[in-house]
Amino acid sequence: RVCSRSARRGSICIEMALTAVKSLFGPVYDLAFRSFMRIVEANLVPDFIIRRGVRLLLQTRIDMEHKGGVEPRQRWFMSLVEGLKKRNIAEQTMAANEQHYEVPTEFYRYCLGNNFKYSCCLYNSKLDGLTKAEEAMLDLYCERAQLQNGQNILELGCGWGSLCLWIATKYPKSKVTAVSNSKTQKDHILAEAAKRNIKNLEIITADINEFSPPKPGSYDRIVSIEMFEHMKNYKELMYRISMWLKAGGMTFIHIFVHKEFLYHFEVQTEDDWMAKYFFTGGTMPSAHTLLYFQEHLKIVDHWNVNGRHYAQTSEDWLANMDKHKKEIMPILASTYGAHQQTKWFVYWRLFYISVAELFAWDNGNEWFVCHYLFEKPQQ
Known about the structure:
Blueprint: H1 2-24, H2 26-41, H3 47-65, H4 70-84, H5 93-101, H6 105-111, H7 130-144, E1 152-156, H8 162-170, E2 175-180, H9 183-195, E3 201-205, E4 219-225, H10 234-244, E5 245-258, E6 263-264, H11 273-277, E7 283-284, E8 298-305, H12 308-323, H13 325-336, H14 341-360, E9 367-375
Parallel strand pairs: 1-2, 1-4, 2-3, 4-5
Antiparallel strand pairs: 5-9, 6-7, 8-9
C-alpha cells in the first residue's frame, strides 16, 4: 500500500507539472507536443508510453473541469446547458462524415464484430468475444426500449446498421426507418438487408439539422445510439423527437458520458488531438445533462453501463486492427494517400487506445455509458 500511495503521489506530481507547463509555457508545450507526435506518426513510440501519455491528458482534463469546487462547477455547468439551447442541433456534421463515416466499409470490416456495431458493446463474461458482446448490447436495447413486434420504429444515427438490421430481423411485423448522414453507410445497410431478405427496413441519408421523417407523429419508438454526443441543441432535438412520436410513444437513447462534467471537444492546444482528428464538433455530456431537457419528453428510466464494457470494446477493435494490418494498410493508402498510410494506421490505433483508456479510468466509473428512456405524455 505504501508503494501504491508513493506511485500515486508521483503520478499526481507529474500531472500537476504537465498542467503547469501548459499554462505557463503554452507555445513551448505545443511545439514539444508537435515534435513528439511526429515521432508517434512514424510508429516509433511503444504502446506503453502512448497509454501513459493518454492517461496524463485524461488527468489534466479532470483537473481542468473541477473548476475549483462544487459551487463554481455547477454555475459553469448551468452556463453550458443554457449555451446548448442557443446552438444548432448539430455542428460540423461534414467533419464527422470525413473522420469516420466515409472511411471505406472494408476498414471497419476488419476492426468491428460481425454486426458492424461501432459503439459500446456488453461483455457479460470475460470469455465473451466481440460479436457476442455486440449481440448482448443489441438485445439489451430492445429490452430497455420496450420494443414489440408491429411497432413503427425510427432510429436516429444508425451507423453501419447494427441496430436497425437487428430490430428489423427480430420484429418482422415492425416498420423500421433509420437515418444516417453517410451514403457509405446507407449502401452497406441496404446490401446487408438484401442479403438477409429484410423487407421492413428503410434507410434515409440526411443531415439531422434538416431531417424530417416521412410520417411525423406516427412512431411508437425512436431509438438513438451514440448520436447525441455529436449534437448540441438538445432542447430543439428533444422537441422534434416529441413531434415525431405518437402520444405515449417512447425514445431510447444510448450515449457515453462523464459522471459529472459536461464539456465540448474543442481544439485549443496541440494536445486536443481527439477534437481535431476524430471528434470535431463533439460533446461530452454528463450523466445528468439530458435530464435538464424534459420540456417535451419525460424521463421514465435511466441506467448506467460501466465504462469497462467500452474499454474492452475498443481493445477488441484495436486487436482486430493489429491482426489485419496487412489488409488494412492498402485501404488507408487509398483513403489518405500512400505517403500517409503509416501515419493514419498509427492515428486509428491511437484513437482506439484513447477510447479504451478513457473508459477504463477509475475502473469504468469516471466515463461510462448511460441509457435513458423518455416518454411523450398522453395528450
